[in-house]
Amino acid sequence: MSYKGIGNEYAEYETYVEYIKDNIMQVRNINPGTSLAVVYELKDGELERTLTQGEVYYRYDYTSSKKEDEILIKEPIKVGTSWTLKDGTKRSITSTDKNISTPLGNYTALEITSESSESTVTDYYVKNIGHVKKVFKTKEGDFTVSSELEKIEKDMPYREQIRFYYPDFLKDKLAYVIKDIELFTNKDVKEIFEREMKIIPEGSELTKVMSDNTKILNIELDDDKDLVTVDFSSHLVSEMNAGTSLEAMLLKSITNTFGTYFQKQKVKITLEGKPYSSGHVLMGPEEYFTVNTENTYEFK
């Protein structure tokens, strides 16, 4: 869904549905300034926004995370239903059949008005579509910003580029390949990594990072620690068939690939839940590898 912005360059934005799990939905919200992961939950007659994670330029399932509980809509759906947010803003249903216009068309909408000491925000929701319009006004009325629905596209993937690193053993460097990836709703990004890290460019002398039997079991982020943990099946080591130097390059490739994508400097590699261990490398429970993209080049 695309929204036209009026009055502010950041009022324009696009949304992509990343995950739908029962009564929970995660959306990627992209405006000219940033990319957000936003999670909504419908329960007990209330629609809540449970998480807004800023500067998210990757696909990750945040549906089980909860950092806020802002009520957007509340039953009973009738004029006069009201509630107060934690910051003191009063939010209420002010119309159930408001006629509005957007660049995409005219609608009869549910109108939700939020009143604070400094501004009034009016949101409009339409059944079977969702949020179609937002209008922000200062109390003085001298500043207005609006976002209005202008396009809906169904079954469209979110397209992004991912940088995958591979050992170039003969050059004693890491090479990276930038690949165009399509992510549909509910697509787990670990499937993408698992597939692509087993593929090298045709005719190249790069080394596959994982054997065909190796599985990525889990990916977990810890934003506070600037850490991503990637759990592999034991085949990562048992089928690695590498000496000390090549193993180090493979581990660097994994570290750079996941750390770069998930915007984390620290990468913990585990084997079926246990610290990484091989004949050459033994990691402790709290030890991790650090992203280092020096001595790398783009393979074209």
- Number-wise, the strands total 20
Count of the domains: 2
Q: Biggest sheet, open or closed, and with what strands and sense?
A: 12 strands, antiparallel
Radius of gyration: 24 Å
Structural class: mainly beta
Mean pLDDT: 97
How many separate helices? 3
User: What is the string of SSEs from the N terminus onward?
Assistant: EEEEEEEEEEEEEEHEEHHEEEE
Helix content: 10-25%
Task: Write up what this structure looks like.
By secondary structure, the protein is mainly beta. The protein has two domains: 2-151; 158-298, no CATH class. It has three helices and 20 strands. It has helices at 189-196, 235-238, 244-261, and strands at residues 2-6, 13-21, 24-30, 35-43, 46-53, 70-74, 82-84, 90-102, 105-115, 119-126, 130-138, 144-151, 158-168, 173-183, 216-222, 227-232, 266-271, 274-275, 289-290, 296-298. The strands form three sheets. It has a twelve-stranded antiparallel beta sheet with strand order 6-5-4-3-2-1-12-11-10-9-8-7, with no helix packed on it. Strands 15, 16, 17, 18 and 19 form a five-stranded mixed beta sheet that branches. A hairpin with a 3-residue loop joins β9 and β10. The model has no long low-confidence stretch (mean pLDDT 97).
